[in-house]
Amino acid sequence: MQQVRHGRQRNGAVRGKASGRSRGNVSSTVIEDSAPGEAREARAIHAAILLVTSGLTTLVTAVLGPSMPKMQAHFADAPMADFLVPLTMTVPLLTMAALSVFIGLLADRVGRKRILVYSTAAYAIFGTAPLWLDSLPQIFASRVLLGATEAALMTVSSSMIGDYFCGLKRQKFMSLQTTVAAGSAFVLNLVGGAVGEFGWRAPYMIYLISVPLALLMARYLWEPRPPADLAGSPARDGECGDFRPRELTGICILGIFVGLVFLIAPVHLGYLFGALGVKSSAAIGAAYGLNSLGVVCGTLCFGWIVAPRLRVPAQLALACGITAAGFFGMSLANSYGLLTMAASVNGFGAGLLLPTAVTWNMRILPFSRRCFGVGAFQSCMFLGMFANPLLVVSLEHSTGTRAAAVGIVGAGLMALAVVAAMVSLRWHRQALEAA
Asked: What angle, 0 to 180 degrees and rounded to 10, lies between the N-to-C axes of helices 136-164 and 336-364?
């Protein structure tokens, strides 16, 4: 069985020795079926199902935003409506932060597929609940339960991508998760606005998309098994390594920062334009679109250009540096064009940063702890997303402007880029000395 050499290999390239047999191909997509002695090959249909599943989480905010004013007006007389209506859109994120790690533990114990199929079906029930619920507290409770199903969808679908694929294929599909999410958010914003013309309840019908998805899961997906269960199965990266809780803890801390950074532009870009006197919704929407396009380009660049050529510290240094440069530009911009350009650069860097952290986390997790590790990272990332406005607004009160607050976040990210670059140079020197 191959032994994975952590930290010193190029991304996706795993070196090892096979005892009594030829060296395994880490780019293989052959994984184990639930029946002993059988193997199945993951294909495009399996990747598509898992990628679309992870993209469902964008429905939480993307499709509902345009209809929030109508919902607010409908519940104008309800107690605490000013707080509860906006929270119906964001409380699933808090639930995901609280439950992802525990769902990961459960999935490692009872299996992936069962949890994924049942959660996808429940997603349709809780997602469409506001169609027939008339009480705002009941709708709020349904959104909390929706967050629990979304925690399962994101954690288990990500883990199964790691189960089904390995090497560079795994890294490409993990980066495509962010591509699909960003693309879905762009499309769903448009769909949510159009459907919202039929009333504030109408956008909730879109959650029914998970019904055919659950049927496809039941038909095409299978329960993965650890490679050791099959004699003669090809060795795979990350499967034979020991669980390293300290490294996972460090990645989870990074996950909090990634979640916080990833939502800076989506949450605060409109306020920055407002400070410049830009009031056109169309112009601001175009800038948001270019930021999302930057994210998509960044994720594609990571999977096809950066991941095969750079190791983790260099990936992190590059991603943090570009994202920080975008933040600096956003904090200093004094015109619509400059702020839009800086937001695009920031989006590209964020598109590099998220898959860098996700694939690093996936690479260190053995099969038996993969869902737990993915869930722990997801919990920390969603916690960072939830804390984003709290931190930025606090910094704004200290500095006087939101632009200055964004600049401070950029400075912290640039410091991380410098540290990662130093580690990358150290690894490079050690590799030269070893050669």
From this structure: 60
Tokens of 363: 């690479």
Tell me the DSSP string of 371-406.
HHHHHHHHHHHHHHHHHHHHHHHHHHHHHSSHHHHH
Q: pLDDT per residue over 168-218, tens digit each? A: 888 888 888 878 877 777 677 667 667 777 888 888 888 998 999 999 999
Give 220-269 pLDDT, tens digit per residue.
999 988 765 443 344 444 444 678 889 999 999 999 999 999 989 888 88
- φ/ψ of residue 28, rounded to 5: -65, 150
Burial 139-164 (b: 16+ CB within 10 A, else e): bbbbbbbbbbbbbbbbbbbbbbbbbb
127 contacts 69 by C-beta, under 8 angstroms: no
- Distance (Å, rounded) from C-alpha 119 to C-alpha 147? 11
Q: What is the largest CA-CA distance in the chain?
A: 74
- Pair 97, 382: CB distance under 8 Å: yes
Q: Which domains does the chain have, with CATH numbers?
A: 38-223 (1.20.1250.20), 241-435 (1.20.1250.20)
Cα torsion for 159, 161, 163, 166, to the nearest 10°?
A: -130
Cα–Cα distance measured from residue 133 to residue 284, given in angstroms and rounded to the nearest whole number: 34
With beta carbons less than 8 A apart as the criterion, state whether 70 and 85 touch: no
pTM: 0.79
Name the CA dihedral angle for 426, 428, 432, 435, rounded to a multiple of 10 degrees.
110
CB-side exposure of 92: number of CA atoms within 13 Å?
A: 27
Cβ-proximal residues to 233 (8 Å cutoff; 6+ apart), any chain: 30, 32, 39, 227
Give the burial class of 267: count Cβ atoms within 10 A of its Cβ; 0-12 exposed, 13-18 middle, 19 or more buried: middle
- C-alpha 324/C-alpha 427 separation (Å) is 23
Angle at 385 between CA 81 and CA 307, to 5 degrees: 150
Q: Quick one: how far is CA 309 from the chain centroid?
A: 22
Q: CA neighbours within 13 Å on the CB side: how many for 352?
A: 27
- Cα(58)–Cα(67) distance, integer angstroms: 15
Instruction: Output the CA torsion 365→370→374→377 (10° steps).
Output: -40
DSSP assignment of 291-304: HHHHHHHHHHHIII
Q: Which residues of 379-390 are buried (b: 16+ CB within 10 A; e: fewer)?
A: bbbbbbbbbbbe
Closest CA to 167 of 307, 42, 317, 32: 307
